[in-house]
Amino acid sequence: MSTHAEATLVALLREARRSRRLIERLPSDVMPLDEDAAYRVAARVAEESSLVVGAWKIGATALDNLRDLGAARPIYGRIAKEAIHGSPCLLKFDDLMTPVDECEFALVLGEDMPAHRTGWTAEAAADCVDTLHPAIEVGERRIARGSPLPIQVLIADDSAAGHLVLGEAVADWRRHDLAAASARLSVDGREERMGHGRDVLGHPLNALAWLANQRATAGQPLRAGDIVTTGSCTGMMPVGRASRHVADFGILGKVEVAFD
Fold first, then answer.
1. How many CB atoms lie within 10 A of CB 14?
2. What is the pLDDT of residues 71-118, one digit of tens each?
3. What is the reported pTM?
4. Are 200 and 230 in contact (CB under 8 A)?
5. At what angle do helices 35-48 and 3-19 cross, to 10 degrees?
6. Under 8 Å between Cβ of 186 and 84
């Protein structure tokens, strides 16, 4: 990917974020050729947009997501601090860009996660987590959802990061079996999707360990206070105008977001 092509894509994505207007068709000559170029574009868009990171999102952690997105491995992106909300919350539908929502586990770190000499594992990552929140991620794309695009394009668009809605903190989360924990997504009172923690790379903590290794390798490790949302266990649910979405995580709590 040439320097000019990279700069052009950065400018297109920045303008889409600013104007809230979709990029209907991305020119073929600005497509990132690999993941490194795509992550570099996403980082530049965030930096030049003065985006303050409020959370890190992980995507493509379930087999169906990997298949649907055409990904070979998980991906990650940044959620703006201003786009993190407590449950229940109301989002204005017309301000969103092709929104979908997903039931996820959000983890708040109590310790830094620098490079680990043997690589982070789920067991080691668990010791760095302070609290867990049931969550709904409202994903957005700045590029129109038309014909399939290479996964690198989604990564460049910060892996479709949008909003994050957090339920109440679960301080004693360690006594729960997160792999077996269920999540049920209801829309306007009707259950639409169901999944389990094991649908996220086998366990949500596996996703955290994966991201910790990625960020440490990039020389920008996760820090205490960071929020990491570990990927959908219910797939992607399109959002409709004037709808109410409730994610029920059983004993771990509920999360609610309505779209005005």
1. 16
2. 778 999 999 999 999 999 999 999 999 999 999 999 999 999 999 888
3. 0.94
4. yes
5. 50
6. no
